Amino acid sequence: MTPAEILAAHRSQPYADLAAACAHELPPDLTGVLVNLHVVRAAALRGEATDPWVASPEQFRSDRRRHGEAIRAAEAAGSVQFTEPLRMTDLLPGLLIAARRYPGLPLRLIELGACAGLLLVPEAYRITYPHSTWSPQAARTQLTAQLDVPQELLDTALHITDRLGLDLSPVDPGAPGSYDHLRSFAWAGDPSREPRLASALSAVAQDPPEVMRADATVALPDVLADRVERDVVTVVIESGLSAYLSPLESLRLGRTLDAMAGRGPLMLISRSAAGSGTDDLPTTTTVLDLGQRWRRTYAATDLLSERTRWIAPRSVAELTR
User: Per-residue pLDDT averaged across 165-175, rounded?
Assistant: First the structure.
């Protein structure tokens, strides 16, 4: 699929229209197109361009020419830095499954590609699911989810002893400019994304987790060597990073996790694991117990539009065995 077709399929029609109209002037890959849109939108948020959420192709072309130097620098860096707090709604069941598989043991969270660390603090969110609610006392913001998560699973005690993120370009959730920087990467088409992002940044900034500046695939072996222990469940969270990894980097990541699985309880929650998904939600959210060679796929996922659907058994006993 072309970038324009991908953007249209993921319900971002304004960006799809720009990508189609300017196809011969933009990079041929989705990451390159998103980098161009990010640079122009960042300029628009400073009052120096027309917002590509509403721009005509002619306005977008003009702004690309005006900000060509910044675009070339961003294309050389080649990274798309965005975080979506809504991802917490389908990562949370994985955390609770991990807690149920090792009752009495605390969790230690490590997130790959953590950005601002918004997914390392599940207790910051009150989440309303269709027939159930996650409502920790420390919640400081609200999310509404599509997943039909069993209330029995949400009632599981969750004790997190520490948390660490790894990211090439960490974002301080409380720093001036962080919100505009991240919203410059937000796709047109979902008006709820920006206020949700602002609220989550504010909530997590009150007690932000540590996010280390590092290449996750390079730093992870040392991080795990220092943290995997018998009396704690180490949970690695991968909410979309693997989509940007080369085959060699993916292989390195898998070998690292396999090598550490014998040191103590080690689990992986991945939003981009290969799976059957459904016709309109092609990937899955999966929790894996790496030491016991056990996996449970519990949600079908669209990594770009953030749509999700529960596809696992509703029986918690069946879900976790």
Answer: 94
Q: How far apart are CA 150 and CA 209, in angstroms?
A: 28
Which residues, in sequence order, are CB contacts of 20 under 8 Å at separation 6+? 2, 4
Ranges of each domain in the chain? 3-77, 85-320
CA distance 80 to 169: 10
Residues 6+ apart with CB under 8 A from 232: 105, 106, 107, 108, 161, 264, 265
Burial class of residue 260 in the structure, from the number of CB atoms within 10 Å of its CB (0-12 exposed, 13-18 middle, 19+ buried): buried
Q: How many residues does the chain have?
A: 321
Write out the H or E segment, with its range, that includes residue 41: helix 30-45
Least confident of 109-118, 149-158, 241-250: 241-250
Strand partners, 274: none
Provide the token pair at 57.
Answer: 């192709």
Cα separation, 12 vs 94, in Å, equals 28
Render 278-321 in DSSP notation, one character per residue.
-SSS-EEEEEEETTTTEEEEEEEE-TTT--EEE-S-S-HHHHH-
Most confident of 12-21, 234-243, 275-284: 12-21
DSSP 242: G
pLDDT band at residue 246 using 50, 70 and 90 as cut-offs: confident
Which ranges constitute the DSSP H helices of 190-290? 193-205, 216-227, 247-260
The torsion defined by the Cα of 201, 184, 89 and 78, in degrees rounded to 10, comes to -110
At 236, the pLDDT band (50, 70, 90 cuts) reads very high
Q: Given this model, what pLDDT does residue 83 score?
A: 85
Contacts of 28 (CB under 8 A, 6+ apart): 2, 3
The whole-angstrom separation of Cα 305 and Cα 150 is 24
What does pTM read for this prediction?
0.92
78 against 275, higher pLDDT: 78
- CB atoms closer than 10 angstroms to residue 128: 14
